Amino acid sequence: MTDFLDLQDPRIDPFDVAQRAAAVIAERTGSPTHDIALVLGSGWGQTADVIGETLATVPNEDVPGFAKAAVTGHDSAMRSVRIGDSDRRALVFGTRTHFYEGKGVRSVVHGVRTAAAVGARAIVLTNGCGGLNPSWTAGTPVLIRDHLNLTAASPVEGATFIDLTDLYSSRLRDIAHTVDPQLPEGVYTQLRGPHYETPAEVSMVGTLGGDLVGMSTALEAIAARQSGLEVLGVSLVTNLAAGIGDRPLSHAEVIEAGRAAAGRCGRLLASVVAKI
Question: Pick the catalytic residue: 53, 101, 197, 253?
Answer without folding.
Answer: 197
